Amino acid sequence: MTKTLTMCDSSVVLVLFCMVVLQIKGSKLIWARKHWNPPHVAMKHLKPLKSSLDYDNSENQLFLEEERRMSYLGFRCLEISRWVVCGLIGFLTGLIACFIDIMVEQLTGLKYYVVKENIEKFTAGGGLSISLILWAVLNSAFVMVGAIIVAFFEPIAGGSGIPQIKCYLNGVKIPRVVRLKTLLVKVAGVICSVAGGLVVGKEGPMIHSGAVVAAGVSQGRSTSLKRDFKIFEYFRRDTEKRDFVSAGAAAGVSAAFGAPVGGVLFSLEEAASYWNQMLTWRIFFASMISTFTLNFFLSVYNKNPGELSNPGLINFGSFDRNFLLRNRLWVVISVFVLTCECGGPPGGLLGALFNALNYWLTIFRIRYIHRPCLQVMEAMLVAAVTATVSFIMIYFSNACQPLDVVQGEDYPLQLYCDDGEYNSMATTFFNRPEKSVQNLFHNPPGSYHPLTLGVFTITYFFLACWTYGLAVSAGVFIPSLLIGAAWGRLIGIMLPVFPLQIWADPGKYALIGAAAQLGGIVRMTLSLTVILIEATGNVTYGLPLMLVLMTAKIVGDYFEEGLYDIHIKLQSVPFVHSEAPPTSHWLTAREVMSSPVTSFNRVERVGTIVDLLSNTSTNHNGFPVVVSNANGEEPAKLCGLILRSQLIVLLKHKVFVELARSKLTRRKLQLKDFRDAYPRFPPIQSIHVSQDERECMMDLTEFMNPTPYTVPQVSARTHALVPHCFFFNILAFFFLGGWTGDSEGFGQIPPGRKLLPWTQVCINSTTITGCLVTRCPSFYSNIWVTQTPEKTAHFLRQSTKLYLLLKEKKKCFVAGQHE
Amino acid sequence: MTKTLTMCDSSVVLVLFCMVVLQIKGSKLIWARKHWNPPHVAMKHLKPLKSSLDYDNSENQLFLEEERRMSYLGFRCLEISRWVVCGLIGFLTGLIACFIDIMVEQLTGLKYYVVKENIEKFTAGGGLSISLILWAVLNSAFVMVGAIIVAFFEPIAGGSGIPQIKCYLNGVKIPRVVRLKTLLVKVAGVICSVAGGLVVGKEGPMIHSGAVVAAGVSQGRSTSLKRDFKIFEYFRRDTEKRDFVSAGAAAGVSAAFGAPVGGVLFSLEEAASYWNQMLTWRIFFASMISTFTLNFFLSVYNKNPGELSNPGLINFGSFDRNFLLRNRLWVVISVFVLTCECGGPPGGLLGALFNALNYWLTIFRIRYIHRPCLQVMEAMLVAAVTATVSFIMIYFSNACQPLDVVQGEDYPLQLYCDDGEYNSMATTFFNRPEKSVQNLFHNPPGSYHPLTLGVFTITYFFLACWTYGLAVSAGVFIPSLLIGAAWGRLIGIMLPVFPLQIWADPGKYALIGAAAQLGGIVRMTLSLTVILIEATGNVTYGLPLMLVLMTAKIVGDYFEEGLYDIHIKLQSVPFVHSEAPPTSHWLTAREVMSSPVTSFNRVERVGTIVDLLSNTSTNHNGFPVVVSNANGEEPAKLCGLILRSQLIVLLKHKVFVELARSKLTRRKLQLKDFRDAYPRFPPIQSIHVSQDERECMMDLTEFMNPTPYTVPQVSARTHALVPHCFFFNILAFFFLGGWTGDSEGFGQIPPGRKLLPWTQVCINSTTITGCLVTRCPSFYSNIWVTQTPEKTAHFLRQSTKLYLLLKEKKKCFVAGQHE
Question: What are the TM regions of this chain, as residue ranges (chains A, B) (predicted)?
Fold first, then answer.
């Protein structure tokens, strides 16, 4: 058969090419601007963060009364319902994974048969461009649906969702991230984008889906659907909800990769600094149920119930225990050295390149493609280009392979190959990417032509890079694995060309390459190693995988941050990394404290409260409650802490001293009222307080947390380091001491400790002289230093960078008030 | 062939039988005593605990100066050396595992050939008792060596070592537990006891070995060998050392079971409440290196380097993905229900029975067999009895199996079987138990006769129970697995006898049984599941294993504690469980505080210090440093915390104000001096202070920790709950507030939080009115309550129980001052 390029063919290709050129030209604008100032880009799209999660129960009188009323049996029941919720989370997550998998398989199969028939029709007679157009249109149509629902209905459902979940587990409440609507859009979106042939995976979105399921199930109600099942009411608070969300994320990982332990470690790596045995055990349970549910229902779907061979959406297939072909001592050692050198550095470099390209692309998108219809069009363009590129590569490739070498090719395409052969390039593009990864790992030596692999790597690399960040729900795991497996296998094939022997079959090199590429892009370490070990199902590969991931991370980190971190940063989320920035060692507490302290009296005028809450310049989320001395000379004494959300509930229910006196029968406010308002507390503006009511008084004693975290004040002459970072629950509380007038001590953050400013005011134990309120809506404008304007300026220059923009090197994305 | 019992045979059996009867009679004494009072038993053998580990760096001026001097590069180097140390730990642990494995194999092989030849000689002619005696003597000889070195040289090396490591990671410094001598005795002991045919495993001791290796390597010196390599000096402190010991324990688990992830989780489960990503990553690295080293060197030993098929000392062999034989939907579901019901409860029950029997046996041992020579004799007796019982069972069994059914029987014994057959019972006893476990898992249906399995289970159960707690180094993992696998397989075989179908092959039931039995005995949950998943190498088995372990634990916990917990309790270690006892919810802080507070002034008279340190009634390990007001009316203000060990170093170096003035050139005390004294600080009695020196003054400012953990005092009128439990590093710090005279607030431990009294004094931020000093040498005598004698009595009745004897139900092992 001959390849004939008709006029029509070339014109179609030309049009697509022009579209690409146009976009590239647009992006060049960025490069052209000499004094380009990225901060504005970020600031323009910076939406104020609602608030942070409240990781500590407010142990006020209501809370304690409830705890006291609760019997031992009550605590038992709670514990059991936690387990039930985790089981449900796992089950539903597994079901969703199963649904996505089946839908994708059906749609892909449908598409393949349509296109294959068409291609076969035109292969002989020419005019393959019709097939191309058909393919491109089909893909674009799928992607259009996926992009429209994401761009118009729920933009937060775009991307893999892992950055968002990382942020959530890190303690940042990103609006709408765990809502039902997000889940629906996510699931539908990922089906569309994978079926649309985009260079994406369906694994990342599973993690987000699991988290949403968890957030929904654990609350026993749906705020969106306005349906309250009156169950699990106890869990309606940030502390409990976050635990379940970590379980959901773990269940998602577990379903995606068949890696329950990896899921647990993912949750721990992203979420925890406190190891709670029972919680971990529950998370593990959710993960187990999740992978089992997926496995079971897929086996039912495959008409073979009980043949549990699909623990995850992707299976690496089983590798044999014998890592090497030759069994000589020096070979084993040198292979381990080579593994690191062949796998890690290229993985790190390519990963960094990928991330850098994607960073620039994302900035371009933030700047120019922020209208939903543009986003949809871009997604469709990418889909069309992906189809075209794939088509061109299939068209020009001569990678014919005999059909019998590979057992179980689902989508063999003969094209110009001889009978009994198939085009391996076509297979790689037509297959579900998961299957292609498996093939690269397990096909016998000789299944792939080096050129095919090389071209495939390059094309796929750029396509994947272009695709990530589109307004579609899609993950980057599978493309990374595929790119890595391709170049890994290429290295494995090429080694004998150089005067080097081949020590392991190319499939092993493909595995190493896949791990390196993935590690180079996402930079997860511990959990990724375990995920890969579980996916390969062989502990023998643990050490090489670990070494490769480590070197890839080290090499990659030298050039560029991880992909998720980049996207988190571009969303201007005050993400707190697990390690304090090295320069923070000498940052003193005094420098990050605000003054004067915004505080309330124990019995406070309603008007004062409303004014303070409405004041946009002091919109903290937590306020100290103090007892002033009668003469007002001595500084006020701290007696508790009250949250904005609590005050709003109090105002809404008009819990005023005067009203309580007049209506004796008035129902006492209970914890239930706070729970009912959770998690969508109304803004202060929506609460009407009449002029009369403004003069009423509110007694905060019952509702404040009488034991907020504080740091003691050092005695006057000790030039000691005051604040310690306490590790609490999943995050470090940053305790700040206040200082009395005569104190000369100043605080300092001990090196190597986790640095986390928090919503809660941090105050001296007895005397308030400063407070640190961070992560509140207007993080950027509400930090003052106690002393001088110079210090303020200094602080804004230093700490905003430190806190917000960790590891910022050359890119100066400082979002602050200074110029 | 006929079985002939000669006169000689029966007499030998009789003598052994009598010995057993005598021991049983002795143990009956315990039962006979009506008002038996176990406390005395425990108290008699209670050696004072040295102290607890110091989990917080004392951030005094010396420390801070050193940190300040350290460059960024210095911190980098430290980090790198931590990795190097972890790599070394993993490597050495792997080597030790390899050494033990090879030695055991060689010695067992030797023994087998000697005995086999002898048996074959006497099989035909009768007089097999000669063989029995030979066997018993051989075994006893091995065990004697093992028992002698343990009983006479290092008793702490006895048993599996897991309870000791649990305690160490829990924060209790048990003397000599991580010394070189312990390691040597442990390794030699475990080789002897396994080679001696005792019903023991070599897996448990690996964990202890790994921990010792870690403690040794990380310090860069050997105090026992008096050799200082002048490296890793920075790590000579409790905080760093403990981290390495957790890595060592993980490496041990990893080498024992080929389960690196399981090892990490073991460490976390036992050691951590704080999740430190870098630390976990390093622990994982050590585990990986450990399993790889073992794997590699075993492959070299097996003349097949690179064929890495031995990741652990025990391999379960590979299970297929298909858990079930029948693939019907309802079968799958009902099997999962059955799994829990067939596996969990019997496992839990048998485990509880095992633990209860072992508990009584251990008390008997503590009471009557505490002299080393008696211990050696008991060990020899057990060895002889084990040999005899095995022999009798082999003798009377007709479990002949054709030789070709099972491939690779290392030790087939023909005995009275036909040619081409072998005695499967003999194989079970002669094999290394690891191999027997594998056989039970993987031999095809029909390999075992149900009666063989039943008798084997019962015999092995009692032998294992008798053996654990002997003065030999040995673990209980393998015997548990073997017992469980035997009855699990029995259930699997018996199911078709009842009108129940067989749904899975008996090997799967054996696996479930093994997990259940092990879970029922040791009651580890999370880590054990992961270890078993890794050992089976198949994630599909995760859910059933997890369910079985959970039910086994729940059922077992209802009757009796876990084996390790029992032994920890019998050693009277103040072990702090991960959950607070339920009754502690209403325990107030005031009740556990001591008064008057033993404190020092910032500049204190040497005589006062020496007297206070020597005073046995106040032998706390941490002391508040205070600044008294001039007039003495106001309460003293806290300015720091100083440890007993620091004071001792200061006294040793005579850091007195007067001397500093007289000798200006005197070298300033550095952190190095404290490190050199670590970890074996001399007792105060060994430090000579002359009468003149007693009048000198000591300035503690430089050496005290100026920021000890405290809890603020609440304002006078808030009846608030003061103390929070803060989670710090691996354990919860129990912060106690002090109260000023006018305060009516009192403290209370919030429910569900970890309750941990600590060595450090817990004091009010400004004013000291009480302190809690626990886990100090005389834990039992040094807790007073602040207020009244009634409260003291009450407290001693309540809290000692609470703190020390968690979950004590009927057994009243209260070691306190009350009657």
Answer: 80-104, 125-153, 183-201, 244-267, 279-301, 329-354, 374-396, 451-471, 477-498
